[in-house]
Amino acid sequence: MPNNALFYLTSNDMPLVSHADGIYIWDTTGRRYIDGCSGAITCNIGHNHPTVKRAMVEQLDKVAFSYRTQFESQVALDLANKMVDLTDADLQKVFFVGSGSEAVESAIKLAIQYFVAEGQPERSKFVSLRPSYHGSTMGALGLTGYEPLEAPYRSITIGSVKVPSPDLYRYREASVEEHIAAVLRQTEIAILAAGAETIAAIVLEPVGGASTGGRMVTRTYMEGMRALCDRYGCLLIMDEVLSGMGRTGAWFAYQHYGVAPDILALAKGLGSGYYPIAAMMAGKELVDAVGRSGGFMHGHTYAGNPLACATGLAVIDVMSSEKLVSNAAEQGAYLRRQLEQLAEKYDCIGNVRGIGLLQGVELVQDKVSKQPFPAAFNAFDRLTALAKGRGLLIYPRRCLNGLEGDHVLITPPLTVTASDIDDIIALFDGSLA
Ligand code: PMP
């Protein structure tokens, strides 16, 4: 590939994308791939959807961009109201941004500005889980619990108090209840050690994505974390950048546990790959407190522009009219059963985990020891390359804590049918073999 000026292109084998439709994507040589991971767990409604294209063109014909200090747009108001209707929690205010990292960044700033407004400026520390991934900007990176990503910037990121993420899949000695109780205890000890009066928020993903390959927690854990926030006066921020917008078979992953956040970060599925749009949602009381003390001092130029909001609105319309949330639950359960059958067949599958169409497959040397493959073996990359060679895209991640196996995420668009899943499973089976 001559004169390649793209900074991140490391391999000359990377196919050039040509076009896409539904769950399929083609390269310029005419090869077809099943998008078994929705790009980066993003294209929730599939590719090339006519309703979204129409809505975007209609909006482009009117106005693509207007700046939020000069105009508000009806589509932004409509989208915000629609999103509030989708949640069943105290999350009546929506702040639009352009990426998941920006949504997390906004949540960090809102929490701090809230406590400044409340006369508690000392509350500026965050508690987050290890392993975890919250984004690539400095604030979000500071919360991220993954050593190689954080380490170079540790002296200049905000940092956070890292506490262990519950691991229902690997620990051996105790029951689930004992494990959860121990993790909650460790979290409380860490909060007290850091100074409970200095903590602004606990940040967590209700269902792990890239960091933990679809790891779930339990209702008791979520209730315990909520109780810690209430006991020590800090906020609960949930990062649903990946798990939100129907992916798990509920509009929001927190709904599986019946525990709601004070601030919610959303991204990927909201624009579904059609336009970068993300959002932070928060309670009215919280936002009003910040408003009384001068307003939320934060923003990005492109945030909440009419084209972005028209896209988000059309995506939600498609999700609702095509009943994609219930399809994610139904087809997710089918995908899970099929993956569990593969897990019985292959010794290298340590476990299958997740919910809805967010399913993770952990790769181990053998089922009994559940030892991870050596890092140099790159199990996640190998399997992903084998699958891609067969025409299936899956999402690979190296294990983040060095204790468990690498994993791949199987997260097709929420439009998948059972027969699409059969195709995905057949290609995945061949790749594992
Ligand atoms: N939080 C989570 C849970 C994510 O999965 C991601 C992206 N993988 C981000 C934040 C960052 O989102 P973005 O890449 O859009 O900045």
TrEMBL record:
Recite the UniProt keywords alphabetically: Aminotransferase, Pyridoxal phosphate, Transferase
- Name the Pfam families for this protein: Aminotran_3
Q: Is Phosphoprotein among this UniProt entry's keywords?
A: no
Q: Which prosthetic group or cofactor does it need?
A: pyridoxal 5'-phosphate
Question: Which PROSITE patterns does the record cross-reference, listed alphabetically?
Answer: AA_TRANSFER_CLASS_3
Task: Report which superkingdom the organism of origin falls in.
Answer: Bacteria
GO molecular function terms here? pyridoxal phosphate binding; transaminase activity
Q: Which family does it belong to?
A: Belongs to the class-III pyridoxal-phosphate-dependent aminotransferase family.
Can you name this protein?
Answer: Aspartate aminotransferase family protein
| Species of origin | Marinobacter salinus
